[in-house]
Amino acid sequence: MGIVERKERQRKEVRDSILQASWHLVNEEGWQNLSIRKIADAIEYSVPVVYDHFENKEAILSEFNRQGFKLLGDKLSEAKNTHANPVLQLEAITFAYWDFAFNNKEYYQLMYGLGMPTCESLNSVPELMAFIGVIHTTIEEIIKNGNNAGSDTWLKVHSFWSMIHGLVSINLMSPEVSHLGMSQVDFNKAILKDFIKGFVKGLIE
Amino acid sequence: MGIVERKERQRKEVRDSILQASWHLVNEEGWQNLSIRKIADAIEYSVPVVYDHFENKEAILSEFNRQGFKLLGDKLSEAKNTHANPVLQLEAITFAYWDFAFNNKEYYQLMYGLGMPTCESLNSVPELMAFIGVIHTTIEEIIKNGNNAGSDTWLKVHSFWSMIHGLVSINLMSPEVSHLGMSQVDFNKAILKDFIKGFVKGLIE
DNA sequence: TATTTTTCCTAACAGCGTTAGCAAAGGTAA
DNA sequence: TTACCTTTGCTAACGCTGTTAGGAAAAATA
Questions:
Q1: What does the DSSP assignment read for B15-76?
Q2: Domain with B19 in it: what CATH number?
Q3: Where is the domain boundary, A54, A71, A97?
Q4: B140–chain A nearest CA distance, Å
Q5: From A40, A59, B140, B202, which residue has the greatest number of CB atoms within 10 Å?
Q6: How far apart (Å, rounded) are the C-alpha atoms in residues A127 and A107?
Q7: Mind listing the pLDDT tens digit for each residue in A71-101?
Q8: Nucleotides of D under 7 A from a protein CB
Q9: Which regions of chain A are under pLDDT 50?
Q10: How many domains does chain B have?
Q11: Same domain, B151 and B87
Q12: Cα B98 to chain centroid, rounded
């Protein structure tokens, strides 16, 4: 009697195809232009079927939100593991964060878009918590090894996260920096190096 | 023959009432829920009249975008003028920026919302340029007075802007920081002070 | 085979940005 | 004042959007 199992399997297939179709549409036309009707059309089902698998459009987007933080967390973790020294780890994390944002603009814009109903609190999204955890453990160790053990770890984590997000988001939305002779890539690298240098200094002394 | 003048005056009145009604609606229901029909209803005209004064909805929003940067630029300028020492000026600018964002969340979200079609390039929005100018002159002077005249001013301006935006935006969207015993206000102040201290250090040495 | 459950569609509701086309009002000239 | 022209502002529509009620058809169960 594998009927229930088969049904469950089929359900999952439809659900997955919704996500897959959505992702495809998003990459073609952006978040703004994703619509339930387009999804239904792509998966060759009628509109209400989509609502059998997701409560509403927001639920689909928040699925990608979680996926995004999962992926980002994994990338940071991976970058961290390429070094043993926590300072180098934080440096690698910084660059990995930057690369993720630029290689996955659609994800990033969804994850941090203000208009989007995505950024629930830290506590309610485990993927977000795990992502922050990678940063936290690294900074914690830098502080422990430094000369200023009194630093507030969470405050520093918060600052790190905020600042790297700021650096990324401003550069993500206005990619043409015309003030200088430097190339865009060099300018970005310089900004990042400058940032991480200053930040680490603030951690250990 | 003041007919033309009267007509112009009346046109301006309608235009202003559109902006005023929009602003009112935005503060009641947020950017997401602003609609041309609601505006038309509020100003007691039919929908197409709105389109006689603004090319489209985006044009109305971008009006507020410019207003926002004008206001922010003025606030920063004002804050700067309370001090003569450029380091103190930058400190005042930082706090003024923060206060602006928290006292005018609607403005700030419009100005930096990724989904919004607002952040055109620096060059094309004079209000944005003026706002950046306040930061630029201050940082320029700090560098000049410091021990590291070789610092790239524009790079530092860019970093400053990005980081303060990051600090603000993360705190604007997730106001509940539950990791610590500190109050929210104290936490924010601590973050800001920490940031500005580190940033200035990076400028002068 | 008859009954119940599940699946899935059509069609609609209420809203959106935007525009075509027409009526009425206002201004101008005879 | 009358005839004409220009401006103003309306109704109504087009083609979208998210969401859901209600019923038909298919599948599973008895």
A1: HHHHHHHHHHHHHHH-GGG--HHHHHHHHTS-HHHHHHH-SSHHHHHHHHHHHHHHHHHHHH
A2: 1.10.10
A3: A54
A4: 14
A5: B202
A6: 14
A7: 999 999 999 999 999 999 999 999 999 999 9
A8: 7-13, 16-22, 28-29
A9: 114-119
A10: 2
A11: yes
A12: 10
**Residue range(s) defining the domain that contains residue B26:** 1-54
Predicted model pTM = 0.90
User: Which among A32, A33, A22 is positioned nearest to A59, based on CA atoms?
Assistant: A22
H helix or E strand, kind and range, residue A139 = helix A126-145
Q: For an interface test with A, give the residue of B107, B162, B192, B195 to mutate (most A CBs within 10 A).
A: B162
Nearest CB to A121 within list B116, B122, B174: B174
* Residue at shortest CA–C1' distance from D8: B49
Q: Are residues A35 and A120 in the same domain?
A: no
Pick the closest to residue B171 from A162, A65, A160 (CA basis): A162
- Tell me the chain A residues in contact with residue B161 when contact means C-beta distances shorter than 8 Å: 166, 170
pLDDT value of position A173: 66
- Do B96 and B111 fall within a single domain? yes
Instruction: Give me the CATH number covering residue B107.
Output: 1.10.357.10
Same domain, B151 and B103: yes
How many whole angstroms separate alpha carbon A143 and alpha carbon A156? 10
CA of B52, C1' of C21: distance in angstroms: 16
CA of B19 to C1' of C26 (A): 26
**Encoding tokens for residue B128?**
């944005």
Are B33 and B125 in a shared domain? no
DSSP state of A149: T
Token pair recorded at residue B119: 């952040």
Is strand C in 7 Å reach of the CB of B49? no
Q: Of A54, A75, A91, which residue constitutes the final position of a domain?
A: A54
Any idea which residue has 């700030």 for tokens? Answer: B108
Q: Are residues B67 and B96 in the same domain?
A: yes
Residue A162 · residue A171 · CB < 8 Å: no
Read off the tokens for B32: 């997401």
Query: Is residue A109 within 8 Å of residue B114, measured between CB atoms?
Result: yes
How many other β-carbons are positioned within 10 Å of the β-carbon of residue B188?
A: 19
Question: Which residues 52-71 on A are within 7 A of strand C at the CB atom?
Answer: 52
Q: What interface predicted TM-score (ipTM) does this complex get?
A: 0.88
Q: What is the rounded end-to-end Cα distance, in angstroms, of chain A?
A: 67
- Same domain for B3 and B95, yes or no, is no
| Contact between chains at A170 and B158 (C-beta distance less than 8 A) | yes
Determine, for residues B163 and A163 on separate chains, whether the beta-carbon distance falls below 8 Å. Answer: yes
Q: Are residues A7 and A82 in the same domain?
A: no
